[in-house]
Design a protein that fits this description.
heterodimer; A: about 270 residues; alpha/beta; four-stranded antiparallel β-sheet; B: mainly alpha; ABC transporter involved in vitamin B12 uptake, BtuC; two-stranded antiparallel ribbon; about 75% helix; globular; binds adenosine-5'-triphosphate; binds magnesium ion
């Protein structure tokens, strides 16, 4: 278990303009999904490149969560294809998507406050000592798990207290950071964040946003959903805008402005005029 | 840049919070142990016989059955479940054994069947609670009445007795000067500690009790673990019933009455949260010894049984107060600056004890 690939080895050196020559880590083509009479998604396609942060925005009910739930394997599309690292995948569960390197961090974090950080990072992925015998006895190597936790955090440039610290003692922003770091330590090279900063204060939000910015340097691609334009404009390289289940705008963040995006979102202007 | 450095205004608050955490964290780890020490010293000054080796044997023998059942019980409670039926499963195991002996079976197969009945009752409970989602309190309250009812039906109210000298060894035998039930308790406790501290089971149990949805999303066996723990609880209860049967040399219907009260008291005093999500098996050991010392000391002081009950009640209120304190403690924030120091310690290979 300890010899699995770890994140952080990939360092992006090319300028962002070189991204078109790179293969996308994730590509969705023609995804549609209906809930009875509701057309939640209609023919949505996009590609995500290594180290890219895509800001996924849109009004309530635009289909953002439905889209990321399909990517994360917790929902199945009616039609359309998903490619991860160029290979077509059909996820039947979140576990399958996770195995393919897609980690989803939800607003409710999958962290256990009464366990410490190392215990959380390695929850249900425990490392055993003494080789085969240890695995058979299920004898954990606790020191090794703590060491890998500290090492993973510091590799991602995250300054956190000792891995023995209970998660309950961490601030909201620190918890978000731990949840995201866990995803990356576990080899997630596509991290999906559905409104990660929705309930956080200014300083806590800063911890999360700056951490997302830093993930870029580790080649981790992010899909970042937020209703806060300021946050999106700050961290996203690219903006994907959804309206009534359709993708109506997809362009580098630098080519657009927050007021334009808001106008697009509400339907005040159409994509062609931007 | 991640900003952990506190603003100047909060720096002082952090320092004293940290100091408080240090002090109370120490008390959390050692508080019950010192409470145990205090009552031991107290009883020792009140009675000459309290602090003797003979009496220590008596205390251990008295708590062995409670301790055996408290090990899986503590795991269940930490996972957010409870088994109120243990006393009744104990008497059911005892009566099944007694009836089989009466029908001419020998002790070993009769004991085995009694243990299997306990295990089966526990697993059936675990199935409806963990897989079908029935309320643990309601189902095991049903078990509390039901298992004793079945025991009464089987025995028709008649106590079977006289099981021979071989079976008497289970409750009265000794090895290296230590009573057999105490050996069994030690063995169960060691096995439990191994599972709790050295295998992933302990942290999975804690995760199930604290954040069920999170545990489930990470693939922790949120149903299978409590299901099996109920089985272990039933098995331990039947074993406890057999030990008492051996001590009395009778499958008496009085076995196991109020047993759940003693077991839960020991577990809760040991710092396991009643709502689940926090607990330690080592704390439970001290809790078991505390209950034993309290009972025994009050007997030595010739205080009536009414006072004993009242004292346990008072201790439980204390445990509830500690529970609130522990929850508060867990939430005192820490600073990132603690990192460097602790990492240095980790690097030096001195992680410290859990
Ligand atoms: N499980 C479901 N059953 C029925 N309808 C659903 C379900 N999930 C989503 N929908 C519908 O699909 C549409 C898209 O919902 P979705 O949650 O993806 O929107 P969203 O963009 O995430 O909105 P918000 O910004 O409010 O989170 C909505 O009309 C919603 O009511
Ligand atoms: Mg949503």
């Amino acid at each position: 278990m300890s010899d699995r690939p770890v994140a952080g080895d990939v360092v992006m050196t090319e300028p962002a303009s070189a991204r078109l020559e790179r293969a996308p880590v994730l590509e969705v083509r023609g995804i549609s999904k209906r809930f009875g009479a509701v057309r939640a998604l209609h023919d949505v396609s996009f590609a995500l490149y290594p180290g890219e942060v895509a800001g996924l925005i849109g009004d309530n009910g635009a289909g953002k969560s439905t889209l990321v739930n399909i990517i994360a394997g917790s929902l199945q599309p009616d039609s359309g294809q998903i490619f991860v690292d160029g290979v077509e995948r059909h996820f039947e569960s979140a576990a399958q998507a996770r195995a393919a390197g897609i980690e989803t961090v939800f607003q409710y974090l999958s962290l256990v406050p009464t366990l410490d950080m190392a215990e959380n990072v390695f929850l249900n992925r425990e490392i055993f000592a003494f080789g085969q015998l240890g695995r058979w006895l299920r004898w954990m190597d606790k020191a090794e798990m703590r060491r890998q936790t500290s090492e993973g955090f510091s590799r991602l440039g995250l300054t956190l207290p000792s891995p023995r610290t209970k998660v309950a003692a961490l601030s909201g922003g620190q918890r978000q950071a731990v949840a995201i770091a866990r995803a990356v330590i576990w080899g997630g090279h596509i991290v999906v964040l559905d409104e990660p900063a929705a309930a956080l204060g200014v300083k806590q939000t800063e911890i999360v946003l700056s951490f997302i910015e830093r993930l870029r340097a580790h080649g981790v691609a992010c899909i970042f959903i937020s209703h806060n334009m300021e946050h999106v404009m700050r961290v996203a390289d690219r903006i994907i805008l959804m309206r009534l289940g359709e993708k109506i705008f997809d362009a580098p963040a630098a080519t657009t402005t927050a007021p334009d995006l808001v106008a697009l979102m509400t339907g005040a202007i159409s994509a062609r005029t931007v | 840049m991640v900003q952990h450095a506190p603003s100047l205004g909060r720096a002082a608050g952090h320092t004293s919070a940290q100091r408080l955490r240090g002090i109370v964290g120490w008390a959390q780890r050692n508080g019950l142990f010192f409470a145990l020490l205090i009552i031991v010293v107290f009883f020792a000054t009140r009675s000459d016989r309290f602090l003797t080796l003979t009496n220590l044997h008596v205390v251990l023998l008295q708590v062995a059955v409670v301790g055996i059942i408290a090990v899986p019980g503590a795991m269940l409670l930490t996972a957010g479940y409870v088994d109120l039926a243990i006393g009744s499963i104990a008497v059911l195991g005892s009566v099944v054994f007694g009836e089989l002996m009466n029908a001419g079976w020998s002790a070993a197969p009769a004991s085995l069947i009694a243990l299997l009945v306990g295990l089966g009752w526990g697993l059936a409970t675990g199935y409806v609670v963990a897989y079908l989602g029935f309320s643990p309190v309601v189902v095991t309250l049903g078990g509390l009445a039901g298992a004793r009812g079945v025991a009464e039906i089987l025995s028709q109210g008649f106590t079977k007795y006289g099981f021979g000298s071989g079976f008497a060894q289970l409750g009265n035998g000794e090895f290296l000067g230590i009573d057999t039930p105490v050996w069994i308790f030690l063995l169960v406790f060691l096995l439990g500690s191994y599972a709790w501290y050295q295998t992933p089971l302990g942290r999975h149990i804690t995760a199930i009790g604290a954040e069920r949805a999170a545990a489930h999303s990470l693939g922790v066996a949120t149903r299978r673990i409590p299901f099996l723990l109920y089985g272990a609880s039933g098995l331990a209860a039947a074993l406890g019933g057999l030990i008492v049967t051996s001590q009395l040399d009778a499958a008496s219907l009085s076995i196991g009455i109020n047993l759940e009260l003693s077991v839960l008291s020991a577990i809760l005093l040991g710092g396991v949260s009643f709502t689940g999500g926090r607990g330690s098996l080592f704390g439970v050991l001290i809790g078991v010894l505390f209950i034993g010392a309290l009972d025994n000391g009050l007997v030595q002081m010739n205080v009536g049984p009414y006072y004993q009950r009242a004292a346990v009640g008072l201790a439980l209120v204390l445990a509830a107060a500690l529970d609130v304190l522990y929850q508060h403690l867990d939430r005192i924030p820490v600073e990132a600056s603690e990192t460097a120091e602790s990492d240095a310690r980790l690097a030096a290979g001195k992680g410290g004890a859990a």
